[in-house]
Structures are given as C-alpha cells and as structure tokens.
Amino acid sequence: MDKTFIVLGSLLLFLGVAFGAFGAHILKSKLSADMLNVFETGVHYHMIHALGLLLVALFADKFPHAGVWIGWSGWSLFAGILLFSGSLYALSITGIRMLGIITPFGGVAFLIGWICLAVAALKGGA
C-alpha cells in the first residue's frame, strides 16, 4: 500500500507542477482573471493533497495495524484531487459552470482522507 501512495503522490506532484506551469505560462493570456484564479485554486489543493499522499505512504509503515484506515485515507485524498481539482481545471478551461457541482464532493473526500489518517494514528499505534 505504501508503494502505491508513493507512486501516486509523486506522479500527482509532477502533474501539479506541470499544471501550475501550464496555468502561469499558457492559460494566463487565455483565461479571465476569475477563471485563472479558479485554475490556480485547483493547482493549490492538488499539490497539498498530493503531498498528503506521500504522508499517507510514510504513515503506512508507522501504523501497521491501521491498514484499512490508511487505505481509506490515501484513496480519499486521491479521489479528492480528481474531483476537486479536476472539476476546477475543467470549469476554468471550458467555462461550464455546472462542473462546479462536482467540486464539493472532492472537498468532502479531502476531509474524509484527513479524518481517516487521524483515526489510523489513534488505532494503529504500536
């Protein structure tokens, strides 16, 4: 499990840097200030939660008796990146405001991921 979240976290951090550069260098002249801000918010949360995936991977070893909670934490953070950041990327590029309906589901996934990590620490301590 820890290897999975290290790979996912690393690849998502790579994509976060690439998306940030894409926004700063290419989208800056193509999007309104409002939509560029939406895109940048997606990148911001993307990066924070990709780092969270690396933390989950590190804690998988530290809390071996909390495997299910660690798994829920990692997969929830991953889902949050896809739903929250992904919907903001799509909304900003396409201008389809209905995509904003998806964003809160990603936010809830982030919250679930962090709570599951806390529970893993409480339940999985050696």
Automatic annotation (TrEMBL):
Organism expressing this protein natively: Fodinisporobacter ferrooxydans
Membrane topology label: Multi-pass membrane protein
Compartment list: Membrane
Transmembrane segments: 44-60, 72-92, 98-122
Name the record gives this protein: DUF423 domain-containing protein
Family classification: Belongs to the UPF0382 family.
Domain of life where this protein originates: Bacteria
Major localisation: membrane
Record-linked InterPro entries: DUF423
Keywords per UniProt: Membrane, Transmembrane, Transmembrane helix
